[in-house]
Amino acid sequence: MYDDRTTIVRPTHSRKRPQVWLQHPSPSRFLLVAPRTLMSIFVQQYMYAECTTIVQQSYDRRTLKRDHRTMSEQKYMIKNKGCGMVLDVTKGGDVVGSDIVLWEQHGADNQCWTYTHDQICTMLKPSGKDIALCIKDRVNGTLTMSECIHDPADGRIKDQQWSVFGADGTIACKDDTDWVLDCGGQQKEEKITVTRRANPPTSSQQWEWVPC
């Protein structure tokens, strides 16, 4: 700037020159910059992970709802991955009280099932009633076929509710997923039971749903 005598007057304060950190790779610069850089990276990765988790959970919920809806509209054979045989209601027309066994696949109604409201029901419907796969005795793990319970307040309904979406192929008790359907020695006419889930599940505990 200029005063009245047109002589140059330099400012009394010194102007700080910009510090170009990249031109001075000193330890002190690293100590100043690194924490901020690392924090920025951490925040970005954390936010990405959180967003990914939220999107995946939303997708899983949509998929689960879609699978429930789709399965309730179709009928399936429940096929063991180890031996290739399927769940079979033994007594045909006399459904209630029947055992459930392994049998060679033929696709008749006593081998076809639906999955609705967590219940696995046979396509055999005596007197038009829905009959569900049910735990008969939790001590020895025996199963039977019994009339579907539709009242959620009825404590017996837990013996008819199953979780079938395990990534390991198991069909588990909904109220205790450590217990799963098991076909033992995987022989024809082998009775299906509920046993403790193996880690990893054995082939006798792994199932697939095949459209009838």
From TrEMBL:
Pfam families: Ricin_B_lectin. This is Ricin B lectin domain-containing protein. InterPro entries: Ricin_B-like_lectins, Ricin_B_lectin. Residues 76-207 form the Ricin B lectin domain. PROSITE patterns: RICIN_B_LECTIN.
